[in-house]
Amino acid sequence: MVYVFLACSLGVFVIALRGLKLVSLATSTIETAREAVATIQSSTLGEDEKERRIQRAGVQMFGAFFSLLLRFSACVILALIVVYLGIAGSLFSPGHAIEAAGHWLFIALATVATVAAFCIKQ
């Protein structure tokens, strides 16, 4: 039964990642960083313009960090709630859940399933 709850927990995690648009925010943050590097390397921009753009990018990336942190925390908490429901229902113990989640086969299958879920277009 623990594997059913772990699989459901993984599904909730992936759905939450997609629903909270965590991946798209991370991608746009990486793009902001690339633009900042391009700004630094630019030979056509003046120093004042470079400074203004870099500061703006820094503020955007700082805000994105906290947004990513909060969204990822929400994803983890939602996934843990699913496992907690199984524990609270006395279907398995916390130790059994940790042991099952740490088993190499579950980790391998969960990794493949998660990658496959992200390869599927929304």
Give a brief description:
This protein is mainly α and 122 residues long. 85% of the residues lie in helices and 0% in strands. The two termini are 30 Å apart.
Structural class: mainly alpha
Instruction: State the order of secondary-structure elements, H for helix, E for strand.
Output: HHHHH
The amount of helix comes to over 70%
Question: Helix count, per DSSP?
Answer: 5
Radius of gyration: 20 Å
Give the overall silhouette. Answer: elongated
- The low-pLDDT segments are none
Number of strands: 0
Ends distance: 30 Å
The average pLDDT value, as a whole number, equals 94
Percent in strands = under 5%
Largest sheet: none
Structural notes for this entry:
This protein is an all-alpha fold and 122 residues long. Helices cover 85% and strands 0% of the residues. It has 5 helices and no strands. The chain has helices at 2-19, 22-41, 47-88, 94-101, 104-119. Helix 1 (2-19) packs antiparallel against helix 3 and helix 2 (22-41) packs antiparallel against helix 3. The chain is elongated, with a radius of gyration of 20 Å. The protein starts with a helix and ends with a helix. The model has no long low-confidence stretch (mean pLDDT 94).
